[in-house]
Design goal:
about 120 residues
Length: about 120
């Protein structure tokens, strides 16, 4: 429910671009202490990346599993960027500027590589 509200909020305010990240509870931080105290993090298995270097979701909540959090990063990106108005805006930028065309094509390749790596990690 909270994730859905956040996705709706992002699409409503419609920033030009968006960055979605997983919370990283580093030892010694307030988030780490809070997560351990509340049972959101198993301190014995608190890795932040998997063996191939892909960020994982170490936190979980009573109503939200590690897997749901991890999977919803991709959902967020897809629902934000794969909307007709957002695609039209990006294409319009690309048509008007050769430099922007190169940049957006490079970013598009990087984005699809990111999605593929996440599927291999999942």
């Amino acid at each position: 429910e909270t994730i859905e509200e956040t996705i709706r909020f992002a699409t409503d305010i419609n920033p030009h671009t968006i960055q979605v990240s997983l919370a990283a509870p580093y030892p010694g931080t307030f988030l780490y202490k809070q997560a351990v105290e509340n049972g959101w993090l198993d301190a014995e298995h608190a890795e932040l990346v998997d063996t191939s270097g892909v960020q994982i979701a170490p936190l979980h909540y009573p109503h939200l599993s590690h897997t749901e959090i991890f999977d919803n990063v991709e959902t967020f990106y897809r629902r934000f960027y794969f909307r007709a108005p957002k695609i039209a805006s990006i294409v319009n930028e690309m048509v008007r500027s050769p430099q922007m065309m190169k940049r957006r094509l490079r970013e598009g390749v990087e984005f699809f590589q990111f999605l593929r790596e996440r599927h291999h990690a999942a």
